[in-house]
User: Fold this.
Amino acid sequence: MNSGDKSLFLEAMSDVRPLKQSDTRHWLKPQKVSTQQKPDLTQLDNFLTTDFLEIVSLDVPLEFKREGVQQGVLAKLRQGKYPQQGSLNLLRQPVEQCRKMLFSYIQQARTEGLRNVLIIHGKGREDKSHPNIIRSFLARWLVEFDDVQAFCCALPHHGGSGACYVALRKSADAKQETWEQHAKRSR
Assistant:
């Protein structure tokens, strides 16, 4: 710092007085909170149940529609008309690992605003085969998520009875965007 800069600084600071020593408060600049800050998904409790399992027979297709969801949504989901925005592969994984993977995947999908995902669980030849055990747990677990609106078996090119399409609830931002698009059309 040259002498001209120093004299300007001292002049600008001439009326500044030090804080009293008895003042123990610390003044910190508040941290800027991002509205897009992602939650720490590792801190969430995995609520998916692992108790007694009723095995879903192989001849019963996986299908669920939450109350209030239109039948047309499930029909389009069955026909694969919604683009898949992500997928999760649970093939050859132990049950507990599948439980953890599914829980974190659905949480992550929600934070990213995904609406339609594919979950691959595999095909078994017998009701008590490992893929069908995973499939049966999956049928129970998906219903336990409030954000899962519907699910059904995938089309053959996406895995058929060894995979399922899952429709997730629309985020508040997506609802607002849809409302704005429809509001523009009605003008």
Summary: The chain is about 35% helix and 10% strand. Residues 22-42 have pLDDT under 50 and may be disordered. The radius of gyration is 27 Å. Strands lie at 63-65, 87-89, 116-120, 148-153, 163-168.
